[in-house]
Specification:
With 405 residues, the chain is an alpha+beta fold. The chain folds into 4 domains: 61 residues, no CATH class; 49 residues, no CATH class; 110 residues, Jelly Rolls, CATH 2.60.120.10; 134 residues, CBS-domain (Roll), CATH 3.10.580. 36% of the residues lie in helices and 23% in strands. It is built from 12 helices and 19 strands. A 4-stranded antiparallel β-sheet has the order 6-13-8-11. A 4-stranded antiparallel β-sheet has the order 7-12-9-10. Helix 8 crosses helix 11 and helix 8 crosses helix 12. The chain starts with 18 loop residues before the first strand and ends with a helix. The relative contact order is 0.08.
């Protein structure tokens, strides 16, 4: 019905207080009244279009039906009160005849009749999230796990990148300690130690995860020896003890902008170049490290001499009669997309921790985490050299200050 004081606003059903002109009482919020109100509102809209006066809502209730389970119901229809199976049958019949076509009514009616004659099929629905394998999606900026929260999932990154944050009560936004990308994982250390998370994980880009519940993860890790050894090795590599032993070096890198350490790329490879063209470009590269970009210039992946060894292993698996087209095959057919990178506005500490975390000698660098245009790469030895240089200056300044004092 038209809202008072409004020319083009209408309301009906549970969201509206509509007076029934049959008894001058507010209409009950039931389906039979809402259905008639919808029809009346449509007719009133048609009258407005034709310039006619609208009509008030008027309807005499037909009755009430309520199922109470076990093929039993209670009903009041045209003043008569009915209960039991007959009331349940009438209740189902009313809803059956509201279906749009006879074919559907017959199909649904036969299905309901079958349920009356034979017992229901019961199945078990496992709602224990600790035993589930699931997918999860996060938008940039979403918090995936927070410091201090109990560990519930072991997460593997299928697409995108996440940031590892060191947060405190005084600084809930935290500092970026590192970046993890496709194929990386997190949550294992807290699960293995049965303790809360010590870092916060935030989505850096759109992220898609495959997650194992804590119970399922414990079962797999305890019985699958290679996985247990892999996780133990990763936990040792990611240990904070290293940075706890070098607090001055950590402070130096934390205040050093990464932009000053970025080396511009000699060549940017398009992901659609042929395999021979990519290998020739790699052989001519002075560093042996190339960035692969898409048609927009966004970072798509990386290509170095280690990838050549992987490509040789892939070629060995190709049947002899299918190797004739190798000179025409694209680089993207052999090198997977891998956008793990750091941004120019990150700190040198973020790059250093990411390199250590992944055991890599270099990382690609993009404009920012919101702008993935490739601008160059950063190598581990440059970070170490800068750290030693800055640390030397700092210690010299402290020594001079001590002598002057």
């Amino acid at each position: 019905m038209r809202i008072e004081g409004q020319a083009n606003a209408w309301a009906l059903g549970d969201c509206a207080l509509i007076i029934n002109m049959f008894d001058n009482q507010p209409s009950p919020t039931t389906a039979q009244f809402a259905e008639r109100q919808g029809r009346q509102a449509a007719l009133n809209l048609f009258r407005v279009i034709r310039g006619e006066a609208t009509q008030p809502f008027r309807f005499k209730a037909l009755g009430q039906l309520c199922s109470i389970g076990g093929y039993q119901a209670v009903a009041e229809i045209f003043g008569m009160r009915i209960s039991g199976f007959l009331a349940w049958f009438l209740w189902r019949g009313v809803y059956l005849f509201k279906l749009p076509t006879w074919s559907r009514r017959i199909k649904v009616g036969l299905d309901w009749a079958w349920d009356v004659l034979f017992p229901r099929d019961l199945s078990f629905l496992n709602t224990d999230t600790t035993q589930q394998l699931s997918h999860a999606y996060y938008r940039p900026g979403d918090i995936i796990q927070r410091r201090g929260e109990p560990a519930r999932f072991f997460s593997v990154i299928e697409e995108g990148e996440v940031e590892i944050l060191q947060t405190t009560d005084e600084n809930p936004e935290g500092k970026v300690l590192g970046v993890r990308g496709k194929g990386d994982y997190f949550g294992d250390t807290a699960l293995a130690g049965n303790r809360p998370h010590t870092t916060t994980i935030r989505a850096r880009t759109p992220v898609r995860l495959r997650q194992l519940g804590s119970g399922l993860f414990s079962e797999v890790a305890s019985t699958f020896l290679p996985l247990r050894e892999l996780l133990a090795d990763a936990a040792l590599r990611r240990s904070k003890d290293f940075w706890a032993r070098v607090p001055l070096e950590k402070a130096v890198l934390e205040n050093e902008p990464l932009a000053s350490l970025v080396e511009p790329p000699a060549t940017l490879l398009q992901k659609d170049v042929t395999l021979p063209e990519a290998i020739n470009a790699l052989s001519e590269s002075p560093t042996g490290e190339l960035l692969i970009v898409d048609e927009k210039g966004h970072l798509w992946g990386t290509f170095d001499r280690h990838d050549v060894h992987q490509i040789l292993a892939q070629i060995a698996e190709i049947p002899q009669d299918q190797r004739a087209d190798l000179p025409r095959r694209k680089l993207r057919d052999f090198v997977p997309a891998n956008s793990l990178c750091v941004a120019q506005n990150d700190s040198a500490l973020t790059a250093a921790m990411t390199l250590l975390d992944h055991g890599r000698p270099w990382l690609p660098v993009v404009q920012s985490k919101d702008d993935l245009h490739a601008v160059g790469y950063v190598r581990g030895e440059r970070i170490v050299n800068r750290m030693i240089e800055k640390l030397g200056h700092r210690l010299a300044d402290q020594s001079s200050a001590a002598k002057a004092g």
